[in-house]
From TrEMBL:
It comes from Amycolatopsis antarctica. It is found in: Cell membrane. Its main location: membrane. Residues 44-164 form the Na+/H+ antiporter MnhB subunit-related protein domain. This is Cation transporter.
Amino acid sequence: MPLDPKPADRVPGAPSPWTRWDAPRERWLMAENNCNGWPRSLLLEVCARILFPTVLVVSVYLLFAGHNDAGGGFSGGLVAGLAFVLRYVAGGSVELAAAVRIRPPVVIGAGLSIAVITAVVPVVFGLPVLSTDVWTLPLLGDLKLATSVFLDIGVYLLIVGVVLDLLRTLGAGIEARELEQEEEVDLP
């Protein structure tokens, strides 16, 4: 669909695509009828929505600072996992599905693949497994990039995927049990 259809193709009275390109595609908070029986706390939902991006930025900082300072893929992945736990606690599986569009097994597989490839590539060059090298990137100033950061990225994705999978599987069982208990109470 072209962004700016010819005036003859537009429906009379419909807004132009240029006027609605930045409009949100979904609601910022869940509507009351979308919560699927999950107890709502508006304060917790708003705080979770505000803190979520900040916690993810901190987790990415820990991921990349781990080579020289405290942090790394494992601690960054755990912090990112806690951000997703916060979203889950705020709104259940509906809120988690709004935060994550990709299935957790895909994230786990991608993280494991990146970590294994990073560990095995040095063998191709005659070096021991998990050997690391430091590359200097002259285009970005005096930026040094250690190849171990790719292993950290793989571990980061692996941990985030495992946390998301745990929330999805264990959380679904908890929600189903709570809904069954509510239905038993409602029956005369």
